[in-house]
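Sequence in, structure out. First:
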Amino acid sequence: MRKINAALFITLDGVYEAPGPGDTTLLEKRGWSMPYTSDEVGEVIGGNMMTSDAMLLGRITYEGFASFWPNVPDDDPFGQIMNNRTKYVVSTTMNKATWKNSHLIQGDVAAELAKIKALSGKDISIVGSGVLTRSLIEMNLVDELQLMLCPVVLGQGKKLFDDTDYTKKMDVVEVRTFDSGMIYLRLKPKAQD
């Protein structure tokens, strides 16, 4: 059976998305992860992407990707991966998903994801989509959590586990450190008692 793997860049204080461009006082914090990325980090992210053949996205991430990736040059290899890969978008507000190979998931998300996981193929990657990741972790639907931990505290922004009313224990599968200071954590939820 396929697995659902979530990957996020995250800060020491749990922020995965800094305040947006409308907040001019914090605009300088938009590129918080960039100083910690490197070719070595890119290789890990690319390697993880190659273990999957489908992406699972929330609406906001989907809309951002769908407005960007179809416009990259045809000879961009990563653009080809993004455009040709199967994409599932979870949304309660969208009517249709028009980006190539996109499918809309609405209604009983857990039941729909169970059907998708039962299909033959490689794993399914959640890319970005912090709100979706948090919801799926709460529903015990994430099989692996990959965090790219950046050694920075932002103080504000969207936090992965802000105001949760549940406890999730994780097993550490892999830890890697990079010269940039970033720490890669690969975690699996512990089996429920």
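Second:
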Amino acid sequence: MHHYLRFYGQHQHQFLKLYIFLAKFTSIPLIGRWVRRIANIYGQHGHHGYLLTVAEAEQIVDASKNVALGPCSCRQVFRHCDSPIMSEIIVGTGVEVFSQIRPNGFREVSKEEAKEILRQCHQKRLTHTIMRCQQHFYAICNCCSCCCVPTRLRQDYGIEYALVRNKKVVEDFQSQQL
């Protein structure tokens, strides 16, 4: 059922490096426009993030059946700063999938602990996003602008659908939890 998310999770670090590598082709005349177009289609239908407010992130944590805490993959791979690495809150389908893929990489936490981590990350001026792989929401990432792959894809390479704003994202997440 979650085959693509499972495959992505098993190769997450390689995917993040690949996304940035391919995004660099957007600056090449003639093919850059096509790379950006294909990446935006992939972002719309495959894998992307939604910007969240702290309140929205807390609502998603409250709506999630289980919550786990793990390392931010973007910061593990790129290490551009010293922001805290243990800041990725796994929610929804992600808890089941990632606990099977990396049983020692994530630990279940209470919803209150997850919300406290959100508040701490917000005080450090980290951006809150919920990640979606095809139709499955799987993680609230609290990342910095220098390491965050969706932010970098959007800001540095013009791939707009890597990171979007959707005011109904909490409702969409809640409907998946039924």
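Remark: The chain is about 50% helix and 20% strand.
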